[in-house]
Amino acid sequence: MNTPTKLSAVLFDVDGTLVDSNDAHARAWVEAFAELGVDVDYGHVRRCIGMGGDKLMPEVSRVREDTPKGKAIAERRREIFKDKYLPRLKPFPGAREVAAALAGRGLTLVAASSAKKAELKPLLEVAGVTEFFAGATSSDDAEESKPDPDIVEAALKRAGVQPEHAILIGDTPYDIEAAARAGVRAIAFRCGGWSDPDLKGATAIYEGPADLLAHLAESPLA
């Protein structure tokens, strides 16, 4: 009989998982592209939220992030998001409470986000979870962004645990894929806008933080 693996750490995606920000990110991208003369489809952009910007840009346009135009679009996107959308963002119900509950069980919480470092701190503040997190990893800490596993691997290192002792909580197929490629189990939330077939591969799926909190005793985190 196999002995259950002890869970030591929970790696959290933030956008769309703890903070209701996916639509805001998509709008900021569309506006930034438009200002630089590039027309992109909002629906296409929205389905790419959760990838790093380096992967999103060539997916929705012919512009690469490492070109002068790409850099200008990415910078303008950051400005629009910070100035126009960030002040309006709200946490999902139960975000702070579920983080507090997991930290109270002795689990190490680490953010594993595709956001830039400069955006991640205020997003964690919006979620009201900063005090419960032992660390945070962003796209600045990884050579490749999601769905590559680099950010998850960086979060594991920050948590000081092996993959089998961690679970990632996210809201996009890119979170699930990144976790799988890092050898980490994943829990998915629907609150980021994705349906269950999109989240195939997750160990369990919940509506969002409040739903997980309500079913914590019978969840993979129990």
Descriptive account of the structure:
The protein is α/β, with parallel strands linked by helices and about 220 residues long. It folds into two domains: about 140 residues, Rossmann fold, CATH 3.40.50; about 70 residues. Strands 3-2-1-4-5-6 form a six-stranded parallel β-sheet, sandwiched between helices. Helix 6 links the parallel strand 2 and strand 3. Helix 1 crosses helix 2 and helix 1 crosses helix 4. It is globular, with a radius of gyration of 17 Å.
Question: Which structural class should the secondary elements be placed in?
Answer: alpha/beta
How many independent structural domains? 2
Mean pLDDT: 96
Work out the helix count. Answer: 9
Spatially, the strands of the biggest sheet line up as 3-2-1-4-5-6
Tell me the layout of helices and strands.
Elements: E1 9-12, H1 22-35, H2 42-48, H3 53-60, H4 68-85, H5 95-104, E2 108-112, H6 117-127, E3 135-137, H7 150-159, E4 166-170, H8 173-181, E5 185-189, E6 204-206, H9 209-214
Parallel strand pairs: 1-2, 1-4, 2-3, 4-5, 5-6
